[in-house]
Design a protein that fits this description.
The chain has 295 residues and is α/β, with parallel strands linked by helices. Helix content is 43%, strand content 13%. The strands form two sheets. It has a five-stranded mixed β-sheet with strand order 6-5-4-2-7, with no helix packed on it. The protein is elongated, with a radius of gyration of 35 Å. It starts with 10 loop residues before the first helix and ends in a 20-residue tail after the last strand. The mean pLDDT is 84.
Length: 295
């Protein structure tokens, strides 16, 4: 007969062996056969029965606690998923950060202080419920490799003679300050649609050098004196404020900013190289006073 191997027993299983031994007065061999464990292991359990019962009384039923914790975690998972599907039907965009914050809120309500809404939890949650991260709209632009290669060669000639601190680039961007995220968590295979997005925007022109020197940003809004700046003086703010009814960059604004930028470089006795893209409003007729000959 092959000797039985030692196996892991839970506290509950050990208590069952002890209670059975005392109730039915079974021998170690009989207990070994009944519970399919080795006689040595049964003997050790009976020898330490007082310690086992004392530990159970002091620490409580660990298995019951674990089972209770698993049920709470399952409830958290279900409640969070139900919330996700509800807000998704209302065309509200959900990011991973928002989902984790909601899970933490649910965990607080369910009294699960040990819960951590980590990135690992988020990944597993999405896998369990078949949730993916999708873009709502947008398309990728294409650039010809040959154009990139030609531009790199041309760029070397353009920047020749300029130090890095005197090479600037300026670019506008639109800030839709009331817009929702462009991506949302969504169920796999589900079509991702969107509600009406806010079109309120600011246009901001950033200008910086290769070494990180930054000019005050140009901010273009709709109002001459926005209510949020009531009582403030624009000249004291670290920005250049312009306005028109569409909050767009125009040739007039670009000409004014270029003139200001030119004068600033002239006062500093600097000859700089400024890169702008080929947007129509960049094609100004302003005559710069600080330009480099033949540049």
């Amino acid at each position: 007969m092959t000797a039985k191997q030692r196996k892991f027993l839970s506290v509950g299983e050990k208590i069952e062996i002890i209670d059975t031994a005392e109730k039915f007065k079974l021998s170690i061999r009989q207990l070994s056969e009944k519970f399919a464990v080795s006689k040595t292991q049964v003997a050790e359990i009976l020898k330490k029965k007082n310690d086992i019962r004392r530990n159970l009384a002091e620490n409580g039923n660990l298995e019951r606690k674990k089972a209770f914790s698993r049920r709470k975690t399952a409830d958290l998972d279900k409640i969070t998923y139900e919330w996700f599907t509800k807000v998704q039907q209302e065309n509200i965009r959900i990011s991973g950060r928002i989902l984790k914050e909601k899970a933490l809120e649910v965990a607080t309500q369910l009294e699960i202080p040990s819960f951590k809404a980590s990135n690992g939890w988020l990944e597993k949650f999405c896998q369990r419920w078949k949730i993916t991260f999708k873009p709502i709209s947008g398309e990728a632009g294409q650039v010809e490799i040959k154009d990139v290669t030609q531009w790199k060669e041309k760029l070397k000639k353009l920047i020749a003679g300029y130090s890095e601190e005197d090479i600037f680039n300026a670019q506008e961007t639109g800030l839709f300050f009331r817009a929702l995220p462009e991506k949302t968590l969504s169920l796999k295979g589900e079509k991702c649609t969107d509600g009406k997005s806010s079109k309120e925007r600011l246009t901001i022109l950033f200008c910086t050098s290769m070494t990180g020197e930054k000019m005050n940003p140009v901010v273009i809004g709709q109002s001459k004196n926005p209510r949020c700046f009531k009582g403030s003086h624009f000249e004291k703010l670290p920005l250049e404020w312009y306005f028109n009814h569409k909050s767009w960059m125009t040739r007039a604004i670009m000409s004014d900013w270029l003139t200001t930028f030119d004068r600033k470089m002239q006062r500093a006795n600097r000859k700089v190289l400024l890169f702008l893209d080929n947007a129509t409003w960049h094609a100004t007729t302003v005559e710069l006073q600080n330009k480099t000959p033949n540049k």
